[in-house]
Amino acid sequence: MKRFLIFSAFFLAMQGIVAQSFSDYFEDKTLRIDYTFSGNHDLQHIEVSELKKSDGWYGRRHNLDSLPLRGNGQIYMKHKGKVVYATSFSSLFQEWLTTEESTKATKSFENTFLLPFPKDEMDVTINLTNTHNKVVSELTYHINPKDILIRQMKPNKEQKTRYIHKGGDPKECIDVVIVAEGYTESELETFFKDAEIASESLFAHAPFSANKSKFNILAVGAVSKDSGVSIPRLGQWKNTALSSHFSTFYSDRYLTTLHIKDLHDVLACLPYEHIIILANTDEYGGGGIYNSYTLTTAHHEQFRPVVVHEFGHSFGGLADEYFYDDQFETQYPSDTEPWEPNLTTLVDFDSKWKDMLPKKTKIPTPIPPLDTEENLMKKIGVYEGGGYQSKGVYRPFYTCRMKVNEVSRFCNVCQRAMLRLIDFYTK
Ligand SMILES: [Zn+2]
Hints:
The structure is a single chain. Helices cover 19% and strands 29% of the residues.
């Protein structure tokens, strides 16, 4: 009994410390920073375009000074030189830098991040890293919370929203929004049904299934003038809420939006941390960018597995485990350990799933004979091929939700990685 009391007192004291540290530095408000990332293969720049604020902070109030994952870029808020909040991300701009177009053209991309609103003056440092994990561009911006030019955001009162799933208080849960893209006013009921399918699909997968109470899913009925989304290869351009289009980087099935500020304007003042955009089309495609957004098509027959796969990217920071035979060393050079938890180049395998591996596992692990999904997903190993490369990159299981649409779940390594993130955000 005494032991229990001592433990309780200690636990309460710890809770006090955690709660105090958030309110020491931050108000219960959100600071939105709109950045522009610009440049080309050789030279990159970061600029601040605008600061905004809204009431309520719906991100984490724990582990404030640690990164959830390394990502392809990091943001650090510093008060008198001390890191008081940190987060990480990936961006479409950095992906574009790996394309041939970036060796010939210079472009700019919008990027928006939400941070807790500081009580006192702070420096916000953002950096972009390359595939060798070297910082290639960095910007520090001094924030004065009393700056009269920080625009107060207003909620979109006419916009229809609906909770699809409510696990608890938005200030304690992980808040996911599902946003309509390419749905007209009269198609909004279809959108809300599609959002329910997306939510069901997510919760049909571990580790989300056992952690429903830690998530809220809010559907946001953004209205588009036109029905459907833009398909450039067919010459079809539509007027939609988020101006998304297929053929990103000239890849037919790659569906993204470059209008990130519009996306966050649609979501103004709502409780959200992670974004899923559903496109009203039966074309196949999508994309998912870590701590940015997932975008997928709602009426293709593969909608259910694809939306979960893309959320694996945008929420879990998971890499694609599929690969092409003719592509080498573009994204994962052999001298650098990838930051994504489900791939390794063996540079620092200790930081990955080595602890889950039976002793004497062969590296590379031989491909198992094709068997039932259940058996294939039991055999953890170090299988060569992943991250679009057939050589030099290894994945943990023969198959996974991050490799093909035909299986029913994430491999155990992907599950563990996402469970760690859920705990990081909520404990
Ligand atoms: Zn996996």
